[in-house]
C-alpha cells in the first residue's frame, strides 16, 4: 500500500506504478550516469565508474529489500499486470545484483590491466543487470522478451570486449548468432501463444502470463498452445544452456574474457531460470481437472524431465574430458542447469501452493549457491589466467597448490562446493532441490541426478589433484591478488560456508508464504 | 555446560586448525610450532572427552549430553547430538588416536607441516561429529566431511601411488554415501518430514508408515548398507582399502584403520539394523556370507603380502569381517562383541600401523624381505611390536581375544542364519590364519639373525615413540583383562538395537540371552 501511495504518479489510466520497478530504474539510471561520467572523466579516474556502479547496485538492493519488507498482503501489481512483485522476483533480483557487484569487484583491476574501457564495461554490465531484473519481474511475455534482449545485447558486446583477441571475437559472434536464433524461437513461441489464446467468445489473444493460465482451457487454438510452449522451451533452454541447446556454451565461455565468463555463467543463467520459471510455472500450472491446461502442464513437465536428464548427463560426462579449465567449468555449468531443472520439474508438478512455493524457493536458492561458488571459482581462474587469458589449461595448474596455498585451497573449496560436498553451499542447494523432487515422487530423476553428482566428482577432483598432488617442473610465481578481487573471494568463501551451514534464514525468506490463500492459477 | 560438551568437542580441533593457520601469520612462526599447537588441541580434546564418561542428562532413549537446536527450519533439520553407550567409546577412541597419530608424525612429516596438522585436526572434528550426530542430515554432513581431509592427507603426504589411492578412496566412498543421501531424503518423507534420528526410529518402530519387510524397506536398507559396507569395507567392496592404507602417511593409516572404518560398522549398527530390522534379518545371510568370505580372503591375501603395511591393511579386511559378522548375528553377545572388536581393532591395528611407520621412518622401506632380526638392534621396538601383533591375532589376556570370542559365541547361538555353526567354524579359521600371517611376519621381521647389515645400526625407540605406544599397550592389556568396564556401558544401548531386530518367532527370548551372556562374561 505504502509503495503505491509513495510512488504513484498521477496518470490515471496507464496504471503506472513507478515504485514497482524502482530497483530496475535505479540500475538502468546509474548505467546511463556511468556512461556520462565515463565520457567526461579524466582517464586517470576510471575507477570512479566502478565505485559508482557498485553504489547503484547497492541502492537497488536496498530498494529491493525495502520492497520485500514493506509489502504485505497479496502481491501488488502494476502496469496493467505486466510487472509483479513476489518472492520469486525479489529473490532473483537480489541474486542478479549480487552477481553484478561481484563481477565488478573481480574485473576492477582486470579492466585496467587489459587496457579496456572501464566505463563502457560497467555501463554494459548495469544494462545487462537491468535486463535480468526485468526478466524476473515481468508478468508479461513481452516484458520478459524485452528484458531478455536488453540482457543479451549487452552480453554479446561484453563477450567480445577484447577486440584484438580472436578468441573473444569468435565467442561474441557465436553467442550473437546463436543467441539471435534462440530469441527468434522465443519470439515465435510468444506469437503462437498470443494467437492460441484468442477465445471462442471473441476476446483477442494475450501475452499476460496470468491471463494465459486462465485461458488455457478456453483457448480457440489449443494445438498452437503446444507449439508455442515448445518454441519457448527451446528459447529458454538455450539461455540456461540445457542440452541439446548447449553447444554454444563451451566455446563462448572459453573465448570470452574470464570475468565476463564468470558473469555469464551466473547472471544470465539465473535470469533465464527466473523467467523460465515464471512463464512455465505460472503460465502453464498444474491443473487437476482434465482439459487442455492439464495436458499442457503434463506435456512440458515430461519434456523437461527428458531435458534435465540429458543436460545433467551430457554436462558431466563431457566435462570429464576437458583440458581447459574454462571449458570444464562451462560443462559443469550445463550440468548445474540440469540439477536446477530437477527442482523446476518439482515446481511444475506441484499440486498445492505450499509445495510449489518451496520448490520455487529451492530453485532460487540453488541459483544463489551456484552463483556464489561459481563466481568464486572464476575469480581465482581469472587471477591464475594472468593477462590475455593465457593460462587456462589444466596443465597450468600443475603443482601450484603450495606455491599459492591461499588461492589453491580457496579454489578447492569452490570446486568441492560445486561437487556438492557437505558443509558447503553446493550441498545445501542440492539437498533443497532433490528433496522437493522426491516429495513430488520423481525418484528416478533424483537417482539420475545423484549418480551424476558422483560422476562430477571425477573432474572437480582432477583439478584439486593437479594442484596439490603433483609437483611443478616449470617456474611459476603466485599472482598478485588485488584488493578488490581478494574482497570478492572473501565474500564468496563466506557465502559458501554461510549458505552451507546456516541456510535457514535465506531459505525462509525465499519461500515466505503469501498471506491469502491462492489457487495455483 | 553439559549440553554443550559435545559441540565443544567437535569445534575444539577445528579451533586448533584455525589457531595453527593464524600462527602462520605470526612473525616468530616456525615449522615446528604447528605440531605443538595440534598436539595441545588434540590432547585438550581428549581430556574433555573423558568428561563424557561421567554421564549426564540421560534421556529415555539412552542418549546423554544431548543438544537439540533448530538448524534449517525449511526442511526441519535440527542440530541434534548426543552420545549413548555405543558412540561413547568410539568418540573416546577417536580423541585418543588423534593425539597419538600427531605424535607419530612428529619427525616423520617434514614438508608442509601446517596443512598437514590442519587437515588432521579438521578430520578429528568430522570424525567426532559422525559418532555423535542424532540427525540424519548432520550425520551425512560429517560423514562426507571426513572424506576431504583424508583425501588430502593421502594425496599430499602419501607414498608413490598416492594419487591413484586418494582418488579411488574418494570416489568409492563418495558414491556409496550419495546413495545413502538418497535414502536419507526418502526416509525424511516417510518419517513425516524429519531428519531426527530418535523421531525417525520411533516412527519406524510403529511399523505403519514403512511396512517392515516391504520392498521400500529393503531398498532403503540397501541404500544405507551400501554406503557403510564400502566404508567398512566388506568384501567385495574392499579394494580401495589396501591402496589407501598403503599409500597413506602413518597417521593417516592409523586414523583410517582406527576410526574411519568404524564409521561403517557404526552406521550398520546405528542405522541399518536399528531402522530396518526386517530387511536386516532377510539380508543377514548374504551379509554374513560376505563377512566370512572377507575374514578368510583378507587373511589369506595378507599372508602372501611382501609389504608389511599391505599385510596389516589386509588384516583389517579380515578383522572388520568379524565385526560385521558379530553385528549381523543379532545376538546380544555377538553385537556387544562386535562393538568391542571395533575398539580392539582401532587400538591393535592402529598400533601395528604405528610400528610399520616407525621402521619405515628408519629404513624407508616396507618390504618384509628387507628386514630381519630387528630384535637384536631394537629390543624395545620388538617387544612392543610382538605384543601388538599378539593382541591383533587374539591371544587370551589381550583385547583381541575378548572381542573375537564374544563374536563367535554370539554367532554360534545366532538365529539369523540357518546353520550358524558353519559360519562360526569358518570365521574361526580366520583366527588361525591371523596367527599364521602375523607370526610368520614377526618371524621374518623381528626374529632370526640380521641378514641386512643396515638393520644392525637401527636406533631403538626413543622416549616419544615409547610414550605414544604406552597408552595403546596398556589399553590392550586392560581391555583384555577387564572388558566389563566397556561392556557394561554399552549393554543397554546395544540391547535397544538388538530388541528391535530379534526375531521372537524363532526361539530365544531376550531375557535368556542376557542371562547366558552375563554368565559367560563373568566366567571369564
Report the count of strand segments of chain B. 2
- State the share of residues found in helices of chain A, binned by percent: over 70%
User: Quick one: how many beta strands of chain A?
Assistant: 2
Largest sheet of chain A: 2 strands, antiparallel
Helicity range of chain B: over 70%
The pLDDT mean of chain A sits at 86
Count of discrete domains of chain A? 1
Shape of chain B: globular
Order of SSEs of chain B: HHEEHHHHHHHHHHHHHHHHHHHH
Q: What is the strand arrangement across the widest sheet of chain A?
A: 1-2
What is Rg of chain B?
A: 22 Å
Give the overall shape of chain A, derived from the CA principal axes. globular
Strand order of the largest sheet of chain B: 1-2
N- to C-terminal separation of chain B?
39 Å
Largest sheet of chain B: 2 strands, antiparallel
Counting DSSP H or I runs of 4 or more residues, the number of helices of chain A is 19
Low-confidence stretches of chain B: 504-524
The most extensive interface, with participating residues per chain, is: A-B, 37 and 37 residues
Taken as a percent bin, the fraction of beta residues of chain B is: under 5%
Portion of residues in beta strands of chain A equals: under 5%
Question: If you average the pLDDT of chain B, what whole number results?
Answer: 85
Written description of the protein model:
- The complex is a heterodimer of chains A (521) and B (524).
- With 521 residues, chain A is mostly helical.
- Chain A is built from 19 helices and 2 strands.
- In chain A, strands 1-2 form a two-stranded antiparallel sheet.
- In chain A, helix 2 packs antiparallel against helix 5 (118-137), helix 5 runs parallel beside helix 11 (258-283) and helix 7 packs antiparallel against helix 9.
- The radius of gyration of chain A is 22 Å and the shape is globular.
- Chain B is mostly helical.
- Helix content of chain B is 73%, strand content 3%.
- Chain B has a two-stranded antiparallel ribbon.
- The longest helix of chain B has 32 residues, at 332-363.
- Classes of the chains: A mainly alpha (521), B mainly alpha (524).
- Chain A binds chain B through residues 358, 361, 401-402, 405, 416, 421-423, 427-428, 431-432, 434-435, 438-439, 443, 446-447, 450-451, 453-454, 457-458, 461, 465, 468-470, 502-504, 507-508, 511, and chain B through 70-75, 112, 115, 137, 140-145, 147-148, 151-152, 155-156, 162-163, 166-167, 170-171, 174-175, 178-179, 181-182, 185-186, 188-189.
